[in-house]
Amino acid sequence: GILEQRALDLGDIEGTIGLDTDSEHESTAEIPWTTMLSTWIWERMRGYPATRDRRAALESYLDFRMATPTPPPRRPGFS
């Protein structure tokens, strides 16, 4: 996206891609606590997750919302 391209143009690779964590742990269900701590510290120091992580979270949320639309609001006095 545009934010990702802008950050890369400015040389902010970590801000776009995130931390370089061991890819071997991504396939397992359990992530080492040291990796989770490093990610937590990095996000607190930067103030936000990496651009790709934010985009993935938004796309996941939008997919969920599209799969479960909210019903129309009930009008008082009508059943």
What can you tell me about this protein's structure?
By secondary structure, this protein is mostly helical. The longest helix is centred in the C-terminal third of the chain and has 17 residues. The relative contact order is 0.13.
Based on DSSP secondary structure assignment, what is the total number of beta strands? Answer: 0
Strand content: under 5%
pLDDT < 50 stretches = none
Cα-atom Rg, whole angstroms? 19 Å
Structural classification:
mainly alpha
* Order of H and E elements: HHHH
State the shape.
elongated
Number of separate helices:
4
Helix content: 55-70%
End-to-end gap: 45 Å
Estimate the mean pLDDT confidence: 80
Main sheet makeup: none
What is the fold's blueprint, element by element?
Layout: H1 2-9, H2 13-17, H3 33-46, H4 51-67
Brief summary:
By secondary structure, the chain is mainly alpha-helical.
List key phrases describing it.
elongated; mainly alpha
